[in-house]
Amino acid sequence: MKPLAERIGLYRVAALLVACALVLEILRVEVLAGSAPAQVACTFGEVVFLALAAMVFLSARRRGSRES
């Protein structure tokens, strides 16, 4: 993730992670509506992507406050 963050910036990396969580949410609601195990797996994936995005956002804020 570091090379990508250096190339496009931490906030954009976090936005991409949030977008991945949103795609999983849409997939869960629209495509996997009948399968309980698949819905649980998608929900877990959403939580993972959102947790990673939160860590990246915090890292970006810390990096920004150090540079100021």
Tell me the Rg in angstroms.
15 Å
The low-confidence parts are none
The run of helices and strands is HHH
Major sheet description:
none
Distance between the termini: 24 Å
Please report the total strand number as a whole number.
0
Give the overall average pLDDT: 86
* Secondary structure: helix percent: over 70%
Write structural notes for this entry.
There is one protein chain. The chain has 68 residues and is mainly α. Helix content is 88%, strand content 0%. It contains 3 helices and no strands. The protein has helices spanning 2-8, 10-30, 36-67. Helix 1 (2-8) packs across helix 2 and helix 2 (10-30) packs antiparallel against helix 3. The two termini are 24 Å apart.
Defining key terms:
68 residues; mainly alpha; 3 helices; 88% helix
